[in-house]
Design a protein that fits this description.
The complex is a heterodimer. Chain A has one domain. Helix content of chain A is about 85%, strand content about 0%. In chain A, helix 2 runs antiparallel to helix 3. By secondary structure, chain A is mainly α. Chain B has one domain. Chain B starts with a helix and ends in a 5-residue tail after the last helix. Classes of the chains: A mainly alpha, B mainly alpha. Chains A and B meet through helix 2 of A and helix 4 and helix 8 of B.
């Protein structure tokens, strides 16, 4: 437990969340294997990009 | 072409293969099972891959959230947001009831990791609710 809490930093936690959530959403939204993989890739990329975008948008507020 | 006598005869003699209407009780039972154990509702209907994916996704989110020491909302919440949090957390079914096993030290939201864990746990429940709806729709033959 200590290992997970200390090794899973902010960005790895974001990557893991994006991967697991987009995995479930791709399974729900698409029925063909190829469609699922494409949806998974798109959802994962969008999760990460939007999260990083929001982080940079909020960066001036922390100054 | 389509009104030829031979075609009409074969069409009229063809056996009627209408599928019976789905019963509501098995669909509700499958939805209940899918809530208790994520992915089991799909596995019962022989959607093995989908069941495994939902189990891994919901279980991965919930267990990671517990190991990050996220907050677990109790059933007797004092405010509306606490109730919403409980509903989201309880959506992960058996993982909610195993939370004390994975998070024996209790929640710690004084660190960012604990706050992330709270979101992981809630997301696990919401994802499982969506999977339950999917299993119910498959059971009622609204989806393939």
């Amino acid at each position: 437990m200590w290992i997970v809490a200390n090794l899973l930093g902010h960005f790895p936690a974001l990557l893991l969340f994006a991967l697991l959530a987009s995995l479930a959403l791709s399974c729900l939204a698409q029925r063909s294997p190829f469609g699922r993989i494409r949806y998974l890739a798109w959802a994962f990329i969008l999760f990460v990009l939007i999260a990083v975008g929001f982080a940079w948008a909020m960066y001036p507020l922390s100054r | 072409m389509s009104d030829s006598p031979s075609h009409e005869k074969s069409a009229s003699e063809a056996p009627v293969t209408e599928t019976p209407p789905p019963h509501i009780f098995p669909a509700l039972l499958i939805a209940f099972v899918a809530w208790i154990v994520p992915g089991l509702g799909h596995a019962i209907m022989r959607r093995w891959g989908r069941g495994l994916i939902y189990f891994v996704a919901v279980g991965g989110l919930a267990v990671t959230g517990y190991l990050l020491r996220g907050n677990i909302f109790p059933s007797h919440a004092s405010d509306f947001f606490g109730t919403l949090g409980f509903l989201a957390d309880a959506g992960s079914g058996v993982f909610y009831y195993l939370s004390h096993f994975f998070e024996a030290a209790g929640p710690d939201v004084s660190r960012a990791a604990g706050d992330y864990g709270t979101r992981f746990i809630a997301a696990a429940g919401v994802v499982n609710f969506i999977a339950v709806c999917d299993a119910y729709e498959i059971a009622t033959r609204r989806r393939a």
